[in-house]
Amino acid sequence: MRIYFFQRCFRPKILGSLFFAFTCFTLLSEIFRWRNTWNSPSMLHSSRHNAVLPSGERFTSRIPPQVPNHTTFVPGQFLRGMFPQNESYCQFNYGAPEHFNWTDNYIAFSPELGEMGPFRVIYNVIKVSDNMASNGPVTKFGVTYCTHATPEFLYHIVEVVQRWDGPVSLAVYAPCTDAGLSLKIMHHLCRCLPEMSRLSIHLIFPITHPPVFTSTAFPSCYDSNSNVHQYPTFTDCSAPEALLDGKLKTFRQREGLTYPVNVARNVARKAAETSHILVSDVELLPSRDLVSAFLSMLSRFQKQHAEGDEDDFDLNRPLSIMHEFHMKKYVFVLPVFEVDDRESNVPSTKEELLELYTQNKAVYFHRWICLHCQRFPGIQRWLQQKPSTERPKVIQPLLVVRREFPYHRWEPVYIGTNEEPLYSEQLTWEGQQDKMTQMNEMCLQGYRFVILDGAFLVHVPGIKRRSEITVDRTAWRRPYEHHNTKIYHSITMKMMRKYRTNTRCKL
Fold this sequence. Notes:
Structural class: alpha/beta
Number of domains: 2
Radius of gyration: 25 Å
Order of helices and strands: HEEEEHEHEHHHEEHEEHEHEEHEEHH
Distance between the termini: 58 Å
Helix content: 25-40%
Largest sheet: 11 strands, mixed
């Protein structure tokens, strides 16, 4: 009787509890999955690259959807109404721009994977022209803006060279006819803007798709049903409509090739000839006079250190040991912001940036889609530090931090040297987390990050928001994310065996 009573009264309750627990577990799993998706910094990145992994594996059934561009910003808009000159401000090599004559003798391996990697490089297709540089010859003591692009993003480079007062190193992913398209665009731009004389360009390509000037030079590059072998029509120095509206499909887009973002970063930085480098994305625009102000800060410190006067650097005690020997483990962080898409003029001074910030027209980069990615330590202090009216162009160190817990997911953009670890070339842009292995290695090596006040980067107008994200737009990424995750963990395990354990260097 008692057993019957127990079964009748308690079994339903037990089953109900188990069902409730299972429901909660399922719900929490979904919430966790969605949280990771929402916090991904590249959820709103345009779908400009889509398909073959370095291993050669294809996911051709997962084509990324076209994400509408909600910004009104047009790169190179200031060139409208200007027309190309007869002479070029750039120094072309290999017979370019009329031809493109290269041999195996000019081909280099990618910086990290080397001969075993699937990509090859042709350096200095365009070389910095010292005698035509508006700021004078390039000197060793300087900062090179190292960036990367595909042909459809090349017009962003005019925005960079117009604001950057130093040399620019650009790595272009140009398989097959994308090389000819890139050279055509650059030949046009190099006759429009004197600042292009400070630019060097390096072509990256897969072994299976070497660069060609025309599709007839390499039959596999040709497709009679495609317009990849056609060049855009230029009316003036501004960007042609075919590049802006996406109607001109590149060879990479047609073939669905993944974008080797870290190969491009490594190539751009390796080609730099200055003492310092800034590895950045081509859509991040620097504040005014950044290079000269940064070099002035370094010179000021070196002079004060030699004279034993470091009063200006008492903001943080670790700076007192930043002499030449110890500075090898220091990098200088540039805070990154984004502004409303209705702002046609990207702020170039801190005063202009703070004015937009107080009007809620500017936020730190990825504020609404990835809280931790670009929220740098000391952000409130940085925002409250008003620019000096007496010395508006002065850059000062604000504070010094390590990229450790709780900032272990922070992705700083910094001025450093070529002594820093290379980026992992097995990781693709599509799979995300492409800079995390380098960040983790720098943490394990004990790097310090100096937050700079008076210098910053601003993404081209358009604040990314979660309301614009849908699962359908990012579902194509899953195979690439899975691939990157496996590579990421494999590299991380090797680092843990290589370096002494640091429990604060979280993954």
